[in-house]
């Protein structure tokens, strides 16, 4: 069937033809993009778009899809709490309401939102829930607090060796405090019974609803373990995936002394596996990103999770197996390590996730090798107060330098990294890219603001390009997948309809 859409303001994201007013879709793809003259074409159906905007569906290039769903279904969401007392009271109420849960899990606290700024410890959890294991994950997902019962069931004690690339905190008397970071969180998390395939499916379906309802038609899940990958494949085979999903398997699981082999390449209409994931450091909001100069008021320079020597053979084998490589790197030391590895394997078009504090030399290498930056301006909005606390003004001025990346002609994709942040809404993220203003109204690094048009481009065409599908998605252009959104205005309130393969959802 040939379907004409007309009377629209189409922002195509296609350089050859940046704007159009009409287009025709057949078999899920655009077969013509043009102006009012298309009305003469022989078609089977016509839709008047009433002067609305049309842009490609958003592609969030780094969102932990199942975790977004998990917080909507099987886990307590504590991203909103503003004090230890509030955290304790919601945890207690949740545990009381769910006597069937063998482990109590919550995610999303940020101690910088508490009046004291103090990291909770095991005692804070033991006093409210002594009899069941409790694991509380910080908003960044790179740090956890375990209660005594959780450490007991995990077999972790004061003499447990500290895994490389991780930290364990101790009390002055040498006992465990309950606070674990980076790879050490795996010591506790690996003891939690795994979710069943049915539970994971439920989480993914819930996240999918949330994505589609805000115009996100494609999502990249940037850290997929083997069980989840199986679930994604089963869901794909069963036709459960309405959005398109790029799954990026991990090769180095936390808290285990193993490396997973390369997964199999996989391509279907709704599921793509063409990239693998590594973590080179932690996060800035919790001061675990690997930096060359200590954090403000601290002697810490963060945690380098993978050294050059550890990452090199893994990256080389993944590249030889035909994969793109996506490596989490935020601090300058981590970025340096990753780029040295990419250079050593003569890698091109690989990715760096987040890219918090690159220096000029890093940006040059990224330009030369067309290494993509997958960035999250929304961090400035939601975690900006943490950054102000952790970094001096020199580093803040070019933190997450989105505009510099664009100026250097480095491929850029935008994403939220949800549930690290509370909102998956692309327009909230775009607003953050344009203003770089924190929730409390402070602007961080105004030189790195980008235009609305550039942000939309990075969220659509940019994401498709860095995901290896730039020739089939991300623009309203002949031959491309007809996934698009109709908007009355270019903001969160404007969304009128979402189309996949030219069909309305
Ligand atoms: Zn992430």
Write a concise keyword list for the protein shown above:
505 residues, alpha/beta, Urease, subunit C, domain 1, TIM Barrel, Diaminopimelate Epimerase, Chain A, domain 1, 6-stranded mixed beta sheet, 15 helices, 26 strands, globular, binds zinc ion
What is the structural class?
alpha/beta
Q: Roughly what percent helix? A: 25-40%
Anisotropy-based shape: globular
- Return Rg in Å: 23 Å
What is the name of the CATH class of the largest domain? Alpha Beta
Can you offer a commentary on this structure?
By secondary structure, this protein is an alpha/beta fold. It has 3 domains: 2-57 and 489-504, Urease, subunit C, domain 1 (Roll); 60-64 and 195-473, Metal-dependent hydrolases (TIM Barrel, Alpha-Beta Barrel), CATH 3.20.20.140; 75-189, Roll (Diaminopimelate Epimerase, Chain A, domain 1), CATH 3.10.310.70. Helices cover 30% and strands 23% of the residues. The chain contains 15 helices and 26 strands. It has a 6-stranded mixed sheet with strand order 3-2-7-24-25-26, with helices on one face. A 6-stranded mixed sheet has the order 9-10-11-12-14-13, sandwiched between helices. Strand 24 (484-487) and strand 25 form a beta hairpin. The longest helix has 16 residues, at 197-212. The mean pLDDT is 96. Zinc ion binds at residues 62, 64, 222, 417, 420.
């Amino acid at each position: 069937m040939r379907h004409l859409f007309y009377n629209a303001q189409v922002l195509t994201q296609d350089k050859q033809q940046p704007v159009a007013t009409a287009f025709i879709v057949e078999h899920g793809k655009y077969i013509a993009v043009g102006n009012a003259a298309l009305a003469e074409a022989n078609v089977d159906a016509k839709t008047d778009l009433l002067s609305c905007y049309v842009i490609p569906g958003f592609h969030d290039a780094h969102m932990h899809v199942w975790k977004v769903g998990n917080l909507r279904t099987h886990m307590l969401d504590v991203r909103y709490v503003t004090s230890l007392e509030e955290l304790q009271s919601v945890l207690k109420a949740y545990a009381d309401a769910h006597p069937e849960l063998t482990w109590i899990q919550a995610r999303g606290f940020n101690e910088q939102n508490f009046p004291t700024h103090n990291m909770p410890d095991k005692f804070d959890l033991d006093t409210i829930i002594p009899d069941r294991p409790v694991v509380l994950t910080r908003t960044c997902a790179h740090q956890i607090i375990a209660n005594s019962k959780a450490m007991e069931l995990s077999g972790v004690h004061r003499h447990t060796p500290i895994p490389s690339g991780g930290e364990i905190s101790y009390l002055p008397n040498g006992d465990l405090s309950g606070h674990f970071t980076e790879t050490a969180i795996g010591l506790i998390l690996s003891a939690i019974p795994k979710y069943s395939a049915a539970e994971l499916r439920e989480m993914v379906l819930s996240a999918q609803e949330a994505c589609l309802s805000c115009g996100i038609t494609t999502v990249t899940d940037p850290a997929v373990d083997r069980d989840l990958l199986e679930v994604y494949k089963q869901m794909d085979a069963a036709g459960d995936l309405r959005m398109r999903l790029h799954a990026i398997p991990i090769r180095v699981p936390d808290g285990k002394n193993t490396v997973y082999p390369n997964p199999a390449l996989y391509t279907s209409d709704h599921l793509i596996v063409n990239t693998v994931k590594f973590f080179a450091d932690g996060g800035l909001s919790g001061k675990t990103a690997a930096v060359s100069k200590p954090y403000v008021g601290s002697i810490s320079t963060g945690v380098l999770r993978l050294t050059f020597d550890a990452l090199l053979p893994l990256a080389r084998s993944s590249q030889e197996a035909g994969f793109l490589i996506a490596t989490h790197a935020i601090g300058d030391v981590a970025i340096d390590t990753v780029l040295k590895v990419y250079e050593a394997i003569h890698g091109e078009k690989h990715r760096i996730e987040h890219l918090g504090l690159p220096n000029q030399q890093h940006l040059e290498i990224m330009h030369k090798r067309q290494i993509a930056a997958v960035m999250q301006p929304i961090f400035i909005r939601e975690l900006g107060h943490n950054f102000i606390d952790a970094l001096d003004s020199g580093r803040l001025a070019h933190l997450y330098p989105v505009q510099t990346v664009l100026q250097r002609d480095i491929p850029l994709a935008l994403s939220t990294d949800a549930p690290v942040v509370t909102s998956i809404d692309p327009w909230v993220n775009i607003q953050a890219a344009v203003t770089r203003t924190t929730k409390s109204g402070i602007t961080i690094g105004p030189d790195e603001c980008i235009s609305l048009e550039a942000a939309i481009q990075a969220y659509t065409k940019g994401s498709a390009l860095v995901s290896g599908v730039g020739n089939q998605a991300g623009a309203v252009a002949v031959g491309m997948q007809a996934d698009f959104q109709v908007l009355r205005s270019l903001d969160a309130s404007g969304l009128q309809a979402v189309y996949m393969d030219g069909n309305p959802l």
